[in-house]
Design a protein that fits this description.
Blueprint: E1 4-7, E2 11-17, E3 31-38, H1 40-50, E4 55-58, E5 60-61, H2 65-76, E6 83-84, E7 92-97, E8 103-108, E9 130-134, H3 141-151, E10 159-163, H4 173-179, E11 184-189, H5 190-197, H6 203-214, E12 218-221, E13 227-231, E14 234-238, H7 251-264, H8 269-284
Parallel strand pairs: 1-4, 1-9, 2-7, 5-6, 9-10, 10-11, 11-12
Antiparallel strand pairs: 2-3, 7-8, 12-13, 13-14
Helix pairs in contact: 1-7, 5-6, 7-8
């Protein structure tokens, strides 16, 4: 059984329900739904914990009101705290949820964008077979380079799942060049693939370019249409699993966590995608963004 390292952030989501996002200058009324502990890495880890697969959550937990909320949730869920940081508070966001379950974030960043080389002294990257990394942590070049330097000594047979994120257009070409290397599984939705490689070529051409650089599967999620899987010249479409949508927060993260959990159990990539799709369908049908303590 392989162990995974989930790298990134734990956030506090302040979740608000509103009938429609306002346009500039409008004044709207929202309903407070709840405080939710989330962040891409936290949600990914939730899928692995739900699947009972060995993993470590490698996120900074700082000092302040939001860090206290993150720490308390980790303690309740019996998650080991690998990075205790005293230099600032954890980040938080306003999460606006519309009636169709779609969400929009306004983010205030915290210690998760202050990565330092010595943080990697807390772990041995050679202990892990699979890694998760989000594009959110790659936006700031200094933070991105610290993390990529920390991963440079991972085992040659290990795999990194890179979850592109909606912020891909803010990633520098130099960081993308460091990321898209051997044994990097790329996950993106169709819009993100267009941002990654430009809209001058069709989807098949775009994912072929990615695959040629990584020699690893490329996964493009297509919403209700499922997942387009491409590797080594072969393409397959995996159908989505239906569920009533309560909210979409954390669905993509849980999908990625499910894939890593499936691969950790020795599943084929196709079966791991199906498992990730199943776990994502569970998340969209519930109030919280994670399967932690589900």
């Amino acid at each position: 059984m392989s162990r995974s390292l989930i790298i990134g952030a734990a956030f506090v989501d302040i979740v608000l329900e509103l009938p429609k996002l306002p346009s500039s200058g409008q004044d709207v009324t929202a309903n407070f739904r709840k405080y939710n502990i989330g962040g891409s890495a936290f949600n990914v880890y939730g899928a692995l914990q739900y699947a009972e697969q060995p993993a470590d959550l490698f996120v900074p937990v700082g000092n302040g009101q939001y860090a206290d909320m993150v720490r308390a949730q980790m303690q309740r869920a019996k998650i080991s705290e690998k990075l205790s940081i005293s230099t600032g508070d954890n980040g938080w966001d306003l999460s606006f949820v519309e009636p169709n379950g779609e969400r929009t974030f306004v983010t205030i960043q915290g210690v998760e964008q202050q990565w330092r080389p010595e943080w990697f002294d807390n772990i041995n990257v050679k202990d892990y077979q699979y890694f998760y990394l989000s594009g959110y942590e790659m936006e700031d070049p200094k933070t991105a380079n610290v993390i990529l330097d920390g991963l440079a000594n991972r085992r040659s047979d290990s795999y990194l799942l890179f979850d592109v994120s909606p912020r891909v257009s803010y990633l520098s070409p130099k960081i993308m060049a460091r990321l898209l290397t051997q044994h990097v599984i790329v996950h993106a939705n169709q819009d993100e693939v267009g941002e990654l490689w430009g809209n001058g070529s069709n989807l098949a051409g775009q994912i072929t370019q990615v695959n040629q650089r990584t020699n690893a599967p490329v996964l493009v999620t297509l919403g209700e249409a499922g997942t387009l899987y491409y590797h080594d010249g072969k393409q397959e479409k995996i159908t989505a699993e239906k569920n009533r949508v309560v909210n979409t927060i954390g669905a993509g993260d849980t999908y990625c966590g499910g894939i890593i959990a499936g691969l950790s159990q020795g599943m084929s990539m196709i079966d791991a995608i199906k498992f990730g799709t199943h776990l994502a369908s569970l998340v969209v049908g519930q109030e919280t963004s994670s399967l932690i303590n589900h």
